[in-house]
């Protein structure tokens, strides 16, 4: 018997396949096409304390090997999520991860507090809340907040420390590939009590409209994702996983079972799948099935046998 189970911050996942924030909404659209209960988890659309309309103008551009996005964290706000989305997400049969961003420390702290207190109330009533909180200090496509916290370790330390002080929920910190020292950043997160880190977010990138003679995006730069970033993301995951003792969730251009296994061999406890969801609506479930088949064919009984084998 093969086991795909993994553990993130004390939360048992049936398998390591998590749908990445911003690529799966709150699960409604995909639930019509797949059995979401097969998935390891879903990281919800990025939340901010207050609702955001997102960026104006062009938001998505296809690239030669992936895509660029400048959505700008359009979302209903934390309270809107709690009132209208969380209840539905808890019916999907998989772990619910709330991805939280912010423009300043106060927004991060208040958002984390609201998510935590609401989850405590639900659990006291015998219901489910969120299973994990993913702190996004790495969003490259908003004009303020996000990536400014994810570049400098000591700036990020304050955010992680303050959020950790207001929540007992398992805390993941999503890291930016633009960090000055991503290993140092990950070690800081561990020191400040994070239960896991997830990496990497999109790379800051650019596209120019040569006919209008300006950036294709109103926000000038956008986030690059997809197969083009995978080799760099894989290297960063290996570096971080080799340095920290907390679980690492790897992401960046995963579009096949082989990609996913590479991240696990590099040391990832689990993975997040993002851009591939736009290419294949059934990406998550097909990856789970493919991983199961590969393990059976290779005689691998648990992911622990292959995790971090490069040392």
Q: Could you characterize what this model shows?
A:
33% of the residues lie in helices and 19% in strands. By secondary structure, it is α/β, with parallel strands linked by helices. It has one domain: TIM Barrel, CATH 3.20.20.70. The strands form four sheets. Strands 3-4-7-8-9-10-15-16 form an eight-stranded parallel beta barrel, surrounded by five helices. Helix 4 (105-124) packs parallel to helix 6 and helix 6 runs parallel beside helix 7 (182-191). The model has no long low-confidence stretch (mean pLDDT 95).
- The mean pLDDT is 95
Which residues sit in consecutive blocks of at least 5 with pLDDT less than 50?
Answer: none
Helix/strand order, N-terminal first: EEEHEEEHHEHEHHEHEEEEEHEHEHH
User: What's the architecture, going by CATH?
Assistant: Alpha-Beta Barrel
State the separation between the terminal residues, measured CA to CA. 26 Å
**Total helix count?**
11
CATH class descriptor name: Alpha Beta
Could you give the count of β-strands?
16
Rg computed from alpha carbons, rounded to a whole number of angstroms: 18 Å
Residues in β-strands, percent: 15-25%
Shape from CA axes? globular
CATH topology: TIM Barrel
């Amino acid at each position: 018997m093969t086991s795909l189970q993994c553990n993130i911050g004390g939360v048992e996942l049936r398998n390591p396949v998590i749908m990445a924030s911003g690529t799966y909404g709150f699960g409604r659209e995909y639930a019509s096409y797949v059995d979401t209960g097969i998935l390891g988890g879903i990281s919800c659309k990025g939340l901010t304390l207050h609702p955001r309309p997102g960026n104006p103008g062009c938001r998505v551009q296809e690239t030669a090997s992936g895509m660029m996005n400048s959505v700008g964290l359009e979302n209903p706000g934390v309270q809107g999520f709690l009132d209208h989305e969380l209840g539905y997400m808890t019916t999907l049969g998989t772990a619910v991860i709330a991805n939280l961003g912010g423009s300043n420390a106060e927004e991060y702290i208040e958002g984390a507090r609201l998510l935590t207190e609401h989850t405590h109330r639900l659990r006291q009533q015998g219901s489910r809340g969120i299973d994990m909180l993913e702190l996004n200090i790495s969003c490259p496509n908003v004009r303020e907040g996000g990536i400014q916290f994810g570049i400098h370790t000591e700036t990020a330390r304050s955010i992680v420390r303050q959020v950790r002080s207001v929540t007992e929920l398992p805390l993941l910190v999503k890291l930016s590939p633009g960090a000055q020292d991503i290993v140092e950043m990950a070690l800081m997160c561990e020191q400040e009590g994070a239960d896991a880190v997830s990496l990497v977010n999109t790379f800051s990138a650019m596209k120019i409209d040569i006919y209008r003679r300006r950036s294709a995006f109103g926000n000038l730069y956008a986030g690059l994702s997809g197969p083009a970033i995978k080799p760099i993301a894989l290297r960063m995951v290996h570096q971080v996983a080799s340095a920290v003792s907390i679980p690492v969730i790897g992401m960046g251009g995963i579009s096949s079972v082989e990609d996913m296994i590479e991240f696990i061999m590099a040391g990832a406890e689990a993975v997040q799948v993002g851009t591939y969801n736009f290419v294949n609506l059934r990406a998550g479930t097909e990856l789970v099935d493919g991983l199961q088949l590969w393990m059976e064919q290779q005689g691998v009984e648990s992911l622990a046998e292959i995790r971090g084998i490069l040392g």
